[in-house]
Amino acid sequence: MSRGVYGRVFSRWAVIVWLLLTLLPAVPFMSKFYLLLAFDALLFGTIAMSLDLLMGYTGLVSFGHAAFFGLGAYASAVLLERGIVSLWACLLFAILVVGLYALVVSFFATARRGIYFALLTLIFAEVVYTFFRYTQTFGGSDGIQGVAAPRLIGDFAIDTPLRNYYLVLVYLGLAYLACRVLVTSHFGRVLVAIRENEDRARFLGYDVQRYKMAICMISALLTGLGGALYPGRSAFATPDLMLWTVSGEFIIMVMIGGLGTLAGPVVGGAFFVLLQEKVSSYVDWYFIVIGLVLIFIVLFMPRGLLGLRELLGGRRWRTTA
Amino acid sequence: MDYLVAVLLPQLLHGLVFGAALGLLALGLTVIFGLLGVMNFAHGELYMLGAYAGIAVIGVTHSFWAALLVGPLAVGAIGALTEVTTLRPLYRREPLYGLILTFGLALVFREGARQIWGGDMRRIMPPFAGSTPLLGMTYPNYRLFLLAASSAILLAIWLFFTRTRAGILVRAAVQDAEMLDGLGVNVPRVFTLTFAGSAALAALAGLLLAPIFTVYPQMGVEMILLAFIVVILGGMGSMGGSVIAAFVIGLAQSLLTLWMNPQRVAIAIFAIMIVILIVRPRGFFGREGVLE
């Protein structure tokens, strides 16, 4: 680790890619439609990255991340609907709501290992889904529609695709920074130790459950923040955002990108969003294509898209911190 | 007394009927879970394909009974083909990959069904109408048949697993596939046939339930969640536990609807599930250390 703290946390490539992304709206033919597509790609990429903290680094598969995402979206939409249009208020409220829910989920789920963790997160998420799906206060199955755009400061509303794009880019940058700091820290090393051998980590004196709870909360909050940005772009929050199949899609994004790489799931999420968009504009059976892509990746590229680098002769991607 | 006969008894029977069919679905899931260590996400789609295969066969032959025979066989064949081509290469990999793979398979099957048969709701007519007087009330004949048929199949499966060499081989593979391989058994063939059998069972459940439910491409998504709950409740990998849990969930669901609206029932069942996972994480009959 001779590269110092800066080199340890940031790869030069990440900074370059992020800077290039800030120039994306300047590309000719960048219509509003493509900017919103880029918004989705980066938003879901970032969410996949925060799920990677659990899946790739700690070895916990959460099948309930859609609930964190959806709760964040609802928290923000509820405020916007009631005329509280400050972005900061929306984000704070999302942190509060998602945080409280994640506290309960992670407390119970991290007490169990393996498949039981996955199923507990899944069932908790289904409770949240069913609640919003049938509660008329929150619009039932229609959700909350047509909310106002959030304001950054004063009257500066984030109401154009361009402003939304830069907002999500900031979110991606900060989340990536947070994740990198996390996984390169001592805390991150303990998580990897838990993934590799939970019992041994416990024998070394680490309070394993507390570590798992902490990373669960962090991952949930990052996902919830992403959810809070969503109504600003779409003007709605619906229960379908937290369907368990959405959680499955998040997992797919991580797998496509490559487990335990952080950058990989961002690529995977963006790839998934773009694939869905591209294929669905040509054929209406795009789920078949997505399913086949998924099967192909599992069978032939289990290390994800970033695993391709090895085939292409690149340096071996560091799969752990 | 009127309340008992007019309200409680039919609801109790509904619960048993649903529980028996759910048992068929969960049993296949549990066996695959024991073999591959994977929650088969495509199981709900095999259930859905069973109902559609039934519709296709009925369209040609106009016979529910022919469908009941051909449908599950066809889906079983699809299952075998799927297992050989996609799941077999994953045996030695982490279970996570199998999970993702079955998720992909589920997408393909669901969308495939929508492309072939369209997205709208369909119905299968029950093969016989009418109802039978029973304990002071009348109960639809088809539901009685459903209960009898599902119970008979469950019994047959139990006999298969306890009395036949093939059944014992499958149970041995669930216990320790490597050891079985060492003893000279063709384990991949056991896996393929078991997967086909589990697919056929799911299809059978889908077809049997189709006359009382509706048939649409998404029908598996909701059922599979309930089947997961049944499998956990019964204890991962415990077949008897799954069947008992299926009846418990079936009864709980239909009895709770007497006092709550369906949404609350769904939440109540999830809540029961969460409490059980916390207090007794291995379910009714789960053994320690299975896939943790």
Question: What report would you give on this structure?
Answer:
The complex is a heterodimer of chains A (321) and B (292). Chain A is built from 14 helices and two strands, in the order H-H-H-H-H-H-E-H-H-H-H-E-H-H-H-H. In chain A, strands 1-2 form a two-stranded antiparallel sheet. Chain A has 321 residues and is mostly helical. Chain A has one domain (13-244). Chain B has one domain (2-120, 139-279). Chain B contains ten helices and two strands. In chain B, helix 1 (2-36) runs parallel beside helix 6 and helix 1 (2-36) runs antiparallel to helix 7. The model of chain B has no long low-confidence stretch (mean pLDDT 85). The A-B interface holds A 61, 108, 111-116, 118-120, 122-124, 126-127, 130-131, 133-134, 244-245, 248, 251-252, 255, 285-288, 290-295, 298-299, 302 and B 39, 41, 86, 89-90, 93, 95-97, 99-101, 103-108, 110-112, 114-115, 221, 225, 228-229, 232, 236, 263, 266-267, 270-271, 273-274, 277-278, 281, 291-292.
Based on the model shown, name its key terms.
heterodimer; A: 321 residues; mainly alpha; two-stranded antiparallel sheet; 14 helices; 2 strands; 70% helix; 1% strand; globular; disordered C terminus; B: 292 residues; two-stranded antiparallel ribbon
